[in-house]
Amino acid sequence: MAQSYFDWAWVVGNLGDIWAQLAEHIILTVIPVGLGFLMAFPMALASIRWPRLYSPLLGVAGILFSIPTLALFVIMIPFTGLSKATAIVPLTLYTLLILLRNTVEGLKGVPSHVTEAAEAMGYTRTRQLFRIELPLAVPVIVAGLRIATVNTIAYVAITALIGQGGLGNLFMDGFLRQFPTPLIVGLVLSVMLAVAADLGLLGIQRVLTPWQRNPG
Amino acid sequence: MKFRARCLVLAIGIVAMLMVAVGCGGGGQDALKQGGGGSGGSIVVGSANFSEQLILGNMYAEVLEDQGLKVERRLNLGTRDVVFPSLKSGEITLVPEYNGALLAYLSKGESNVTSPEETTKQLKDALPSSLVALDASDAQDKDALVVTPETAKKYDLENTSDLSSVADKLVVGGPPEMETRPDGLPGLKRVYGIEFEEFKPLDAGGPLTVEALANGDIDVGRMFTSQGLIDARGWIVLADDKELSPAQNIIPIIRKQDNSGKIESALNKLSATLTTEDLKKLNKRVDVDKADPEVVAKDYLKQKGLLGG
Amino acid sequence: MIDVITNLIDWFADPANWQGTDGVPARVLEHIWYSVLATVIAVAIAQPVGILIGHTGRGGALAINLSNAARAVPTFGVILLTFLVAGIGLIPVLVALVVLAVPSMITNTYAGFRAVDRDVRDSAEGMGMTNWQVIWRVEIPVAMPLIMAGVRIAAVQIVATATFAAVVSLGGLGRYIIDGLAQRDLTQVLAGAILVAALSLLTELGLSRLQTAVVSNGLQAESEEASLEAKLEGSTG
User: Fold this and answer.
1) Tens digit of pLDDT for each residue in C61-72?
2) Facing A135 at nearest CB: one of B3, B25, B86
3) What is the overall mean pLDDT for chain B?
């Protein structure tokens, strides 16, 4: 059976590699969440403008979300080979459900008396959106971003099975050689990354909503 | 205005931080580059996802870097089914391969050759025109059927052909592709008349197969002759007396357009030095002693005087 | 594209794929077995904890924070690590799936309990109910929408994630995906994906029915909301 001690020497000797994997992991998280948001945002706006679009859009995103992660990555291979795209496309698709839903709910959640007041004051639809509704929707939208980010960080590790991987490569190395240390390092870093991202996004929310100094 | 300003500042800040992070850490891995080799003349060394491949990949990279070439390592990519298409498409430039296995993969059928020389010759003919095979090494990593000493004793097993009468009582484990590959189960049936009771899809001589054999979940495991851990565990390799398994000499495959005399001579020198016994020792260091493939590769090269050219 | 679809239909139509240890029925049963086992264990761990902190109102912050951290743990990594420690068998799969499911069940049950109206609880105590009676006769029924939402979401996640069992040489529908990847058989991978998605959907529907049956009529509307909330918060692959 594998040794169950932690080999610090390995950690020290592989810092460069560990850092490189962490950097790759960050990129494979930020790009999908970013792209997902860029896609979900217009979809959300469309769903508000034309409410009948919401159900079908949510439905499609939901179906994508229910395809097992491993399968979706593997299915991409014949089309996109071993490139980053094979990882990024599914990762992005997985964020759509939560980002779409939270953006829509966030915007819908703006109290109607606020929007009515804005209209009465002469705000155009666009200005209303960007100056009033969006800022007020930030907490809910950021909540969605937080969940999408934490989820994505976990999914990225799986891409180790298709040649990408980030910290997942540390998992595989440890597993293949029955050597717990890289695995443990990878796990700890994943969790730390997720917690940091979650808190970071929360911090961004606070910065963007100074009027909400008492968090709800 | 304040809100938008905040958003903008935050966005710029985040992008800046990311660029710093990627710039510092992305050194070892070229994160956003697609279609790897050929740009800027760097060689992208790829490898499959097991220890020996990592060692070989690192060795290739080391000797080429030693020659002053720019090398990017993209090791641990997956099985041949994932690695070879990448080689063809140009995402990677160079891989360590096995002449017999690659020939079988390319010819999609039975290659009736088992001699190293003949296998290499046929492989060279079978390669697409964009790829070229360098010299084959004497070092081989052949497929092996492995049993515990207890099983060998119980069924009186020494050669693979000894399995034919008892296989229907035995469970075999190996990589999922063993089920369909010509030199896997179909080949065992064809050449030896062996039909096992059950096939368990595990991995290619990896921890799943090792553990399964160790705790009796399988009776026979598909592993590889150069795995140092077979000896370390005191297991027995059944001799391939009917020569089903083709020769599996280590051979570098490189994209023709990226090849050069310098690369050829460096790699050929390495291939000429490497032996099967060497492979076993190197694999043992990585698999059993948990040493780093990169370190093990470098040590070997230094020891054999292959660096500093 | 058409090729892909016809190959898929052929795969499902092929009787050989419905027999034996690698046949669809066998793999589905294995998958269900792992999922049910994991769900039961997760419930056995999560509900008592959730009920305890929900009822007493103490330790909530700690539990929530631990749960959030646990949600950040990649299931893929847990299963590999547990394999190294415990070897081949069900343990790696169960540990990984339980770690995945417990956080959302705890937070949901806790939230459900906290949401029980103070007045309702007070009048129950006023009527002379003991702690246990308050829990069983008042809090659990009122918190049921959220409790069930938590269980339902956890179960669906478990079904979707049990595909990883194949990574550590077990069976289940993940086998089709892993073997398909190794054998370069896209059809097999697709078949596996479809089967898992279908099973997830069935689990969702089945537990939905259960939820409707178990949640008292006055609370039905709330439970829909709670479910969608929980679903989106839960997944870590």
Assistant:
1) 888 778 877 888
2) B3
3) 84
Under 8 Å CB pairs connecting chains A and C tally to 127
Pure H helices in C57-139: 60-71, 75-86, 90-114, 118-126, 131-133
Residue among A23, A24, A177 minimizing CB distance to B287:
A177
- pLDDT of the residue at B27: 40
Closest Cα partner for B283 from B216, B229, B236, B232?
A: B229
B117 phi-psi bin (left φ>0, alpha ψ -120 to 50, beta other): alpha
Residues above pLDDT 90, as percent of chain B: 35
Q: Which of B167, C185, B220 is nearest to A71 (CA)?
A: C185
Q: In what order do the strands lie in the sheet with B198-201?
A: B198-201, B171-174, B220-224, B143-147, B236-238
For β-strands B131-133 and B250-255, DSSP reports them as: antiparallel
Neighbours of B214 (CB within 10 A): 16
Q: Quick check: B195 pLDDT over 80?
A: yes
Asked if A193 contacts A153 with a C-beta cutoff of 8 angstroms, the reply is: yes
Of B25, B76, B91, the CB nearest to A169: B76
Residue C237 has pLDDT above 50, yes or no: no
A177, A183 in Cβ contact below 8 A?
A: no
Burial group, residue C93, by CB count within 10 angstroms (0-12, 13-18, 19+): buried
Q: How far apart are CA A115 and CA A117, in angstroms?
A: 5
Read off the pLDDT band of A194 (50, 70, 90): very high
Q: Which of B106, B177, B178, B287 to mutate to test the interface with C (most CBs of C within 10 A)?
A: B177
B198 versus B39: the higher-pLDDT residue is B198
How remote is the C-alpha of B48 from its chain's centroid? 5
Strands (E), chain B: 43-46, 71-74, 94-98, 131-133, 143-147, 171-174, 198-201, 220-224, 236-238, 250-255
Residue C132 to chain A, least CA–CA distance (Å): 32
- pLDDT-based confidence at residue C218 (cuts at 50, 70, 90): low
pLDDT tens track for A167-182: 998 998 888 888 899 9
**Average pLDDT of every residue of chain C:** 84
Q: Do C77 and A161 touch (CB under 8 A)?
A: no
pLDDT band at C229 (very low <50, low <70, confident <90, very high): low
CA dihedral C67, C73, C76, C81 (to 10 degrees): -100
Residue-wise pLDDT tens digits, A55-64: 888 888 877 8
How wide is the angle at C-alpha B90 spanned by C-alphas B86 and B94, nearest 5°?
A: 75
Q: Is B287 on the interface with C (CB under 8 A)?
A: no
Residue of A nearest to B229 (CA): A177
- Would the CB atoms of A183 and C84 count as touching at under 8 Å? yes
Name the closest residue on chain B to residue A132, using Cα atoms.
B3
Inter-helix orientation angle A84-108/C220-234, to 10°: 150
> Which are the contacts of C110, defined by CB distance < 8 A and separation ≥ 6?
C50, C53, C54, C60, C63, C64
Say whether residue B175 is in contact with chain C using an 8 A CB cutoff: yes
What pLDDT is attached to residue A189?
Answer: 94
Is B12 at the interface with chain A, CB within 8 A?
Answer: no
Residue C170 scores a pLDDT above 60 = yes
C-chain residues near B201 (CB < 8 A): 169, 175, 178-179, 182
Question: Is A151:A96 a contact under the CB 8 Å cutoff?
Answer: no
- Output the pLDDT for position B50: 81
